[in-house]
Amino acid sequence: MVPPKSRVVWVLVALVLAAPAAQAAAGVEPLRPDEIGPFLDRVAAANRIYSQDMVAYQEYDVRLLIMHWHFTGRVLKTSDVAEVVLEGAPALFPKEISATLFEVADWLETFAIEYQGVESLDGHLYHRFYGTPLPGEESQTRWGTIWVDPKTFLINRIQVQYWWGRVTIQQVFRTEGEFVLLDHQQARVDPLGIRADVRWTEYHFLERQ
Length: 209
What we know:
Elements: H1 20-26, H2 33-46, E1 54-64, E2 67-78, E3 81-87, H3 96-110, E4 111-121, E5 124-133, E6 141-148, E7 155-162, E8 166-176, E9 179-190, E10 194-205
Antiparallel strand pairs: 1-2, 1-10, 2-3, 4-5, 5-6, 6-7, 7-8, 8-9, 9-10
């Protein structure tokens, strides 16, 4: 659920990041100020599954220079906490990557959000939003940016700035029954230079106590 508008800062940035001709051709126009709130309501609904309690299993393929690792992960999400257990991961690998999507799902409630217009990435147009933690909210994130598909309302790209560095993630989803679930991610960790492919293999939803 998107919080009351008094808790969120809506800022429409005049700069449009994609060429007007490309926007018109694709039928994607920058959101008007009165459209931002309803759009984020739909983003929250499309990604609400990640606010549920669950256990998710992952497979990692990670590279750094000539080094290469393959390992597995388990994410336990309960209430507002995502606990990550990695088996076989190198010590330098930041496990915050594993929980990033769960954290982003909470941003609409805990971050001040700015709308930054339409941006073209890899031939696709996305609505871009930037956020910083609201005063009083505890977060390891200094700031974050999300790129949202204007048709599906799914978050296809994430960039998060932590105190130790920046993580950029591309995301692909799959459909299982009534659910649209994260299928795999391609992540880049800077300045460490780590590249990671993460496949989400299984989801098990838990009943909240």
